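Please discuss these two lines.
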Amino acid sequence: MQWMTLFNKEMVENWRNKKWIWVPIVMIILCTMDPLTYYYLPEIMEMAGNVPEGLLFELPDMLPTEVILLSLEQLSMFGVLVIILITMNTIAGEKKSGITEIILVKPIKPINYVTTKWSVYSIISVLSLIIGLLTNFYYTNILYGELSFSVFLKVALFYSLWFIFVTTLSIFYNTILKTPGIVVACTVVTLFVMAGISMGIGHRFTWFPNQLSNHIHTMVQTDTIPKELIGTSIIIGSLIIILLISSILIFNRKESVS
């Protein structure tokens, strides 16, 4: 009962902040910008007057599978940044403004407080991702050729894990810190360090979390789910659970002390 009350509060609050609207719109833009730009680039350059008269400007054809992978590159950079920005204020901001103390005056369990925020932002992240990829799927089939719906489902399923991981990592730093800007910095630095480690040992530790995109590429190109993708997904899922439990314990300890 308490969990559902807090969950509904978060849902309504994020609706009032328009996150249910603008986050999916941003994901749609990220997922369709490159495919549409690539397809219409000759017309765009011709309209801009940058093509000499008589010069034929043709681009090599892209396969439908290459188009959806192109969108994943945008999501890996800008999509992740959007997730970090929408979650940076979820707990840290309330602690800084004193809202947390007011809420916790009532007998609210820390596990309910943390998990409801995590659940709502995970739903926003995954739903926005699915909407963005679905738009990419639509335009890919119109402009580039037929892309199997099963490919779309598998890409959305496995990449959702990465968005949930980023959400959980941001929530984790939210429970430790009180300044949203520092939450963003710590989350970005952590992901940057993980990317650096992946570049160094990724060829040896193929189940490292940052290898997820590479394994999704392999899955799309071969139309099979490699065992490395399953292993990486298990590792990411385990990290999500560990970070979430740690967030609850840290938040409980900090609020008990204060």
Remarks:
- The chain is about 80% helix and 0% strand.
- The chain has a mean pLDDT of 88.
- The CA atoms of residues 188 and 236 lie 17 Å apart.
